[in-house]
Amino acid sequence: MTIVIPFFEQLQQHTKDAQQTMRNAPVFTACAKGEMSLDAYISFLTQAYHHVKHTVPLLMACGSRLPEHYEWLRQAIGEYIEEEKGHHEWILNDIQTCGGNTDDVRANTHQGKVGADIELMVAYLYHQIDRRNPMAFFGMVWVLEGTSVSEGGQVATAIQTTLTLPDSAMTYLKSHSELDQEHIKMFEGLMNQITDPDDQQAIIDGANMVYQLYGQMLHNLPIIPI
User: Fold this and answer.
1) Tens of pLDDT, residues 84-98
2) pTM > 0.70: yes or no
3) What is the C-alpha to C-alpha distance for residues 54 and 52, in angstroms, rounded to an integer?
């Protein structure tokens, strides 16, 4: 008797090494030790802005490229778009509360400029959707929402405690660590309906690439011990 492993479980298994490499970024240790600097937090938020602002456009692009037999998945994307609209503005509000320059971030200039890792990550996703397999986009969903659920709440609490920041400076991290709890449950159900081997591999490959590039961004944050 052949045992069929649900695809969501396969996705977790085939991306665990890349996930662990990402989690080795110094920022996680710095947070745990109370050594997170305000500059590092603003830098993180800046890079978050530069990929979160693409979430809705990427969802739209992915939905437009899905074949007809994935109409059920396109419907789920439509619901997801409604929940994700405007989240990049939350990040700008957090940056402003922390004393950062939101004009530079919005304009992608000076200290607010996107880093190479995030720029490549976003470009990779658009390329996969436009030229390869749009299902690769769901690899990013697994990385970002899975990380938010597993690490986001603890990281947010540690940063807020260390830097004595008000709740108004933690909107993005705190809201997403809670919101993504629900998203992951929905995501698991959707992924377990994906049976095409090529589409499954595209999602796994997409997740591993995003883990690598997002992880590089985390490794490059300017951690300054107190």
Assistant:
1) 999 999 999 999 999
2) yes
3) 5
